[in-house]
Q: What sequence folds into this?
């Protein structure tokens, strides 16, 4: 290395296998998350297709952390960014196929497909069962990991099986019963990257399906700050209670930290008013949790996934001085 060579973080990119997809070094993640906050990915990898992902995982050095993200609608990426490789599934994982077998109708959907698009494709094919996904702005992969749900239905209710790739690049599949689903929870090992889902659907009248989806959409526009920079429900509802009611009772509606605010419209939503940092949002969430514990004795569980490292960390990505 000569005196002019910049010192980079172990030149991670030089240690990664060649791929047919795309690597981006120091990729800004704020543009890829709904909150619009957070530091960069040390390396962002968009695999071209399934084989590219398998090849990458098989050849990626063991000491390189690998994180998968969907479309970032349930993510708070911390200001120091994400070390290692962050994987985002895109077009090569957005397939959609209707399968009729043994008197059943199934939909095979790639993990990179958006939930809203999937619900619309099912509607256009005259297939009912996925209308609730019209209200979930994530990807199929994120919906599997979070057991996403709305309007009385959850992913686990319509899922037959999911296909995945593990950290060693091995492809496997699991039946719904083996995925350890619970409320906004999936028990699959953390290193599993979902690549595909098989859903059970029912042929039905297209107009009736469309009407249900319009209702879902209209309800959401009324009750949630859907045009704000937000991460959806911040905390899971505790057994027998609603998080928003506990937050309201603790006097947190509209509470502000920096440019982060508890939504006035739905107080289980945090919003970035424009210039919030991830630290503002996390501090606000922690303050809400503390106040709810003090007033009701209930410890709220974060539903939003907080990932990456703090800006104060010496290991922050692309940090400069
Ligand atoms: C306005 C708004 C409304 C919302 N309403 C709802 C709602 O009604 N119901 C609901 O359940 N959620 C709701 N959410 C939250 C969010 O949309 C869901 O949790 C969604 O399933 C997250 O998907 P994603 O692709 O955005 O995942 P991300 O937010 O990117 O990631 C979430 C988690 O999934 C993991 N993940 C992502 N892709 C994969 C993959 N391929 N394999 C393995 N793990 C993966 C990530 O590592 C992370 O842990 C809402 C969010 C917003 C912003």
A:
């Amino acid at each position: 290395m000569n005196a002019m060579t910049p010192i980079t973080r172990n030149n991670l990119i030089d240690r990664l296998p060649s791929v047919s997809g795309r690597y981006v070094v120091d990729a800004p993640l704020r543009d890829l998350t709904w909150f619009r906050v957070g530091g960069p990915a040390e390396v962002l990898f968009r695999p071209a297709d399934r084989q590219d992902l398998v090849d990458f995982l098989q050849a990626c050095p063991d000491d390189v952390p690998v994180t998968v993200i969907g479309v970032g609608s349930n993510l708070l990426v911390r200001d120091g960014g994400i070390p290692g490789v962050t994987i985002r599934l895109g077009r090569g994982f957005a397939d959609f196929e209707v399968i009729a077998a043994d008197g059943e109708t199934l939909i095979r959907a790639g993990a990179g497909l958006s939930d809203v698009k999937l619900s619309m494709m099912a509607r256009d094919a005259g297939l009912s069962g996925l209308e609730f996904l019209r209200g979930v702005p994530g990807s199929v992969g994120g919906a599997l990991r979070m057991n996403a749900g709305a309007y009385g239905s959850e992913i686990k209710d319509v899922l037959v099986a999911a296909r995945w790739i593990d950290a060693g690049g091995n492809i496997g599949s699991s039946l719904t019963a083996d995925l350890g689903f619970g409320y906004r929870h999936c028990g699959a090992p953390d290193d599993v990257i979902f690549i595909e889902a098989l859903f059970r659907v029912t042929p039905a009248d297209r107009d009736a399906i469309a009407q249900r989806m319009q209702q879902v959409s209209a309800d959401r526009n009324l009750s949630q700050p859907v045009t704000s920079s937000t991460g959806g429900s911040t905390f899971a509802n505790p057994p027998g209670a609603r998080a928003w009611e506990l937050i309201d009772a603790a006097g947190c509606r509209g509470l502000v930290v920096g440019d982060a605010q508890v939504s006035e419209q739905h107080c289980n939503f945090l919003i970035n008013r424009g210039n919030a940092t991830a630290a503002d949002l996390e501090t606000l969430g922690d303050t809400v949790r503390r106040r709810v514990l003090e007033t009701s004795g209930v410890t709220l569980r974060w539903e939003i996934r907080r990932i990456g490292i703090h800006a104060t960390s010496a290991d922050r990505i692309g940090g400069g001085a």
The longest strand covers residues 193-203. Residues 34, 68-75, 89, 111, 135-139, 141-143, 145-146, 148-150, 193-194, 224, 226, 230-232, 305 surround flavin-adenine dinucleotide (CB under 6 Å). The chain has a mean pLDDT of 94.
